[in-house]
Write a structure and sequence with these properties.
heterodimer; A: 881 residues; alpha+beta; eight-stranded mixed beta sheet; 27 helices; 23 strands; 52% helix; B: 108 residues; 4 helices; 3 strands; 63% helix; globular
Chain lengths: 881, 108
């Protein structure tokens, strides 16, 4: 368009010149002479063209360029203000962008499978909302009778020893059947999926690698397909490589192994260990599938000809959870909370900036007044402020984006386990969109204040005001801004305070054992080297004997599941003197396999009866139960000498209970202790005859156990001697995750700890900003009232009175913010309810602490300006005027 | 700055007045002003085209490429209804200024 117009103008001027020349020729000039004269008469052609073009191009664009240039110049002249503002904006935008990147990647982004909304996790629960695993019988029956699902797959996850490039490493795996891959519908990057016949019992030892493992462990060689790798001592043929980022249920699995369930396992109806993932048929909605499940459950027994341990509405039920919810459900609230927190920090930063800009506008009052008087339009002045804001925002935004980039890396490095779907975190289009939105909001919030302030004044009035006069400035807006900052800071400090209390409560819960001076590590025995049960027991005996004789070790034992982070592995159990509910047997939540000396090493008191003894290793089957077991099944019955029988095959014997141990919080310090049954490792083959020799045994922990050592040394100090001891027993065994028990504990509360650390950080920033704001307002006030203070002091006012007046101003500001903030906190902290432990959202002690802290910070921020006020020299102040 | 404005306003008034008699191209407009003012008003050709552009942008005139009587393709400017109205307003304003000037310059 412009180009056309340019060309037309060019052509028009050309014909003009030609006409002019022709006229001159007609008057008797020669050709060249006429052309020159015509050109002379016309004047500057280029200038004309530019002038004419300027009519059509948008003037304001030029003006903006001018304004921006001018803004850059003025900003360069006040570097202190500029740096503070840019850093504040960068901080706000950077933190928000980084956090939103996490929220976006972890929570908002749909799962990377085709039609992810069709994917449902099927869980068996007791109706209290806690999802559990399915038993094989239940899984197979579900696939046989349900009409809603296109396909339903089963998987279990765990860790295996992988030898790659001659280096043993511990690798997370998922054992899946072919149906899992069919449900996920993501094609392998190379090779192929498991075939259905490969995920039946007796199938081949094949493996599919994750993209990451292929690259890191095998140097992304092209001929990986068909090679064999050593997993737990067994050769597996690689048949495929999955594309980058592929995962199921955020397990970060690197190996995909076939789940080869023996038909016999169908007998163990009450043995729950399968995760089930199903894809709804295209035309079936979630609610249709749910109602089908409900109606199936009422007739489940008739349909499957099964009895005992059946689904009972309200007690033992099947539930569907959309896969995304299942993956991110637990962390969703936590991350939105953090996003809200970082948003509050941004708001405070904006308030601070607005304040800074107002101050600037005021100190530049004379300049502005002068320019207004000289004819500068108010619109142009405002435009200049906008330009200044834009420059600040542009610089801050760019810096913030860079900071976000770095921050995301730091965040995922510091909290790799706490962020779901960590692989997909990055700055993508929606994150950039979010950043733009945040920047626009920032501009609006911090730009609005000074603009409103400016438009409310006329140049004339400003010019008439004496800049040093106490009445020149209406400080209401600045006070409101600071009070708002304090109020927002109160919200953050209250949230952080509640999380601090929560983490403190979690860490001081009595988990049932003494975790101080306790060191733990894991041992996993490869099935190839230790095919038989006896070999495994001998290995543990030798290892524990060696460890116990090491200097600094007071006791040691092995256990299958390490508190406080073990998963329930319960199954149906017959219990003497207890009448189970009409449907099936009762579930014992934890089956724990231990070696002798476990209760001693962990300092778990035996409250009745006795612990295991050496004689039990070869004696009749015995067991120890916990207090929760007695409370649940044997209320008013003497547990010692009573018998229980795991429902695990037909030949399972009755086991006599010889003792009661104190409750241990196995599944987490915030979880109540469940019913628990301890058996001795040596007795496993007698108590579970079906287990012996087979790979089934790994479920009972004899192939992979945790060693606990009571010691006065730290894990780091013990590391070399432990490595030595393990090497002497078996050079091929890696020591897995050698840690102090304290660390295991801290790790078990890592999500609340992460929340606490972040919120504390945000709260610290908020306090700092609010303090700066308060300080700024008071300093300014003191500067403005210098004369007045000087007069008062000249008239004999005490320094302490002046000091108290200024301090009082600061505290009054803080108080207004505090009241508003506390009111907001009472409402907003309620949203944190589910994230807290043993503290209520409106906990009075926490809120009182917050109030005290805010008051202290406000007082501290007011002190310097207050002292400065007392130093005002009355004479100098008066002379200044 | 203020000086240029006066010139601009005057030039625009002269252009509008010239176009009252019929469509004309840029050169013709300049020539017409020069002739009718008996060479008193020399139109700076360089400022003519920006003025034409301004008038066209404000909708007082329109332009169209047409073949002139001499067969040359010229951009012809034409007064619009809005331009006519504009001309009357500008004329009365100008007359007011002229009368005022006259009163100042020839005191009774």
């Amino acid at each position: 368009m412009t180009k056309d117009r340019d060309e037309e103008l060019e052509r028009e001027i050309r014909s003009h010149l030609e006409l002019e020349a022709e006229e001159r020729v007609a008057n008797g000039m020669s050709g060249q002479e006429a052309r020159d004269a015509a050109r002379r008469a016309f004047g500057n052609v280029t200038l004309t063209r530019e002038d004419a073009r300027a009519v059509w191009t948008r003037r304001w664009l030029d003006e903006i360029v001018q304004d921006v240039r001018y803004a850059c110049r003025t900003l360069r002249n006040s570097p202190g203000f500029t740096i503070t503002s840019v850093l504040t904006i960068a901080l706000g935008i950077g933190a928000n962008t980084a956090m939103f990147s996490v929220v976006n990647a972890a929570i908002l982004r749909p799962l990377g499978y085709p039609q992810p909304e069709q994917l449902q996790m099927v869980t068996a629960g007791s109706g209290d909302g806690n999802p559990g695993s399915l038993s094989p019988a239940e899984y197979f029956e579900l696939t046989e009778i349900s009409q809603s699902f296109a396909v339903a797959g089963a998987f279990v996850t765990g860790e295996a020893n992988l030898s790659a490039l001659d280096r043993p490493r511990r690798t997370a795996y998922a054992r899946v059947n072919a149906e899992v891959f069919e449900a996920l519908a993501v094609a392998p990057e190379r090779g192929r999926w498991f075939r259905r016949d490969e995920t039946r019992v007796g199938g081949p030892a094949v493996v599919i690698l994750s993209h990451g493992l292929w690259r890191s462990a095998f140097g992304d060689t092209d001929d990986i397909i068909g090679q064999s790798v050593d997993i737990d001592g067994i050769r597996h043929e690689v048949i495929g490589v999955m594309p980058p980022g592929f995962d199921v249920m955020d397990k970060r699995a690197e190996l995909w192994l076939p789940l080869q369930l023996a038909p016999a396992i169908r007998r163990f109806r009450a043995s729950h260990f399968l995760s089930v993932l199903a894809r709804l048929k295209g035309n079936v909605t979630l609610s249709q599938a749910e109602s089908e499940l409900t109606s199936l459950m009422t007739s489940w027994g008739e349909r499957t000809h099964a009895s005992g341990h059946l689904f009972v509405p309200g007690e033992h039920v099947l539930q569907l959870t959309p896969m995304l919810d299942a993956v991110v459900g637990p962390s969703r609230r936590a991350f939105w909370l953090l996003q809200a927190g970082v948003g509050l920090v941004l708001l405070i930063a904006c308030a601070n900036l607005a304040n800074l800009l107002v101050v600037r506008a005021e100190t530049r009052g004379r300049e502005i007044a002068l320019r207004t008087a000289l004819g500068a339009g108010r619109r142009r002045l405002l435009a200049q402020f906008v330009a200044e804001g834009l420059v600040l925002l542009g610089l801050g935004g760019a810096l913030g984006l860079a900071a976000a980039w770095a921050g995301i890396g730091a965040l995922t490095a510091a909290y790799p386990e706490s962020v779901p779907r960590v692989a997909g975190i990055g700055i993508d289009a929606s994150v950039l969109g979010f950043t733009l939105l945040v920047s626009a909001l920032t501009a609006l919030i911090f730009g609005l204040a000074p603009l409103r302030y400016l438009s409310g004044r006329t140049g004339g009035r400003l010019l008439n005001d004496r800049a040093s006069g106490a009445t020149a400035i209406r400080p209401t807006m600045r006070r409101v801004l600071v009070a708002a900052e304090v109020a927002l800071a109160v919200l953050l400090v209250a949230g952080a305070g509640l999380m601090v209390r929560t983490v403190h409560n979690l860490m001081s819960v009595d988990a049932g054992f003494d975790r101080s001076r306790l060191v733990t590590f894991g041992i996993a025995l490869p099935a190839a080297t230790y095919p038989a049960f006896d070999g495994r027991v001998q290995m543990y005996d030798r290892l524990l004997d060696r460890l116990r004789t090491m200097p600094g070790i007071e006791g040691g034992a092995a256990v299958s599941g390490l508190a406080p982070q073990r998963a329930a592995n319960g199954f149906g159990t017959d219990i003497e003197h207890y009448t189970p509910p009409p449907e099936g047997a009762e579930l014992v939540a934890y089956y724990q396999t231990i070696t002798n000396g476990y209760f001693d090493a962990m300092r778990i008191p035996i409250v009745r009866g006795r612990a295991f003894e050496a004689a039990d290793r070869i004696g009749a089957p015995v067991a120890i139960v916990n207090e929760a077991f007695v409370r649940t099944f044997w209320k008013g019955v003497d547990p010692i000498g009573r018998r229980v029988r795991p429902r695990f095959g037909d030949e399972t014997p009755w086991v006599t209970v010889v003792g009661v141990a104190k409750d241990v919080r196995q599944a987490g310090v915030d979880q109540p202790a469940g019913t628990e049954l301890y058996v001795l490792l040596d007795q496993i083959p007698r108590i579970f005859p079906a287990v012996q020799g087979g790979r089934l045994g790994s479920g009972f922990g004899d192939a992979s156990m945790h060693v606990v050592l009571r010691t006065n040394m730290s894990a780091t100090a013990l590391q070399p001697s432990i490595a030595n001891a393990v090497r002497e027993v078996d050079p091929g065994l890696p020591v897995i995750r050698l840690r102090d028990m304290e660390e295991v504990f801290r790790d078990s509360v890592r999500r609340p700890r992460m929340l606490m650390q972040f919120l504390t950080g945000f709260a610290g920033l908020a306090l700092l900003l609010a303090a700066t704001g308060t300080y700024g307002v008071l300093s300014y006030m003191v500067a403005q009232q210098r004369r007045e203070i000087g007069i008062r002091m000249a008239l004999g006012a005490e320094r302490s009175v002046v000091l108290r007046a200024i301090l009082g101003h600061g505290l009054k500001l803080a108080c207004a913010g505090l009241v508003a903030g506390l009111a907001g906190a009472l409402v907003l902290t309620r949203l944190m309810g589910t994230l807290l432990f043993a503290v209520r959202p409106n906990d009075p002690a926490t809120l009182a602490g917050v109030a005290a802290l805010i008051a202290a910070v406000a007082a501290a921020a007011s002190l310097i300006p207050a002292f400065r006020a007392t130093r005002v020299d009355p004479l100098a102040a008066l002379k200044d005027d | 700055m203020a000086e240029r404005k006066v010139v601009q306003g005057t030039l625009e008034l002269l252009i509008l007045q010239t176009l009252l008699f019929g469509p004309l191209h840029g050169h013709g407009i300049a020539r017409h002003i020069q002739r009718t003012s008996e060479d008193v008003l020399q139109v700076e050709h360089g400022s003519l085209y920006p003025a034409l552009a301004r008038l066209e942008k404000s909708g007082s005139i329109t332009s169209k490429w047409e073949a002139s009587d001499r067969g040359r393709e010229m951009r012809m400017y034409r007064l619009t209804a809005k331009g006519r109205k504009q001309l009357t307003i500008e004329q009365s304003r100008w007359n007011a200024v002229v009368r005022a000037m006259a009163r100042v310059l020839k005191p009774v």
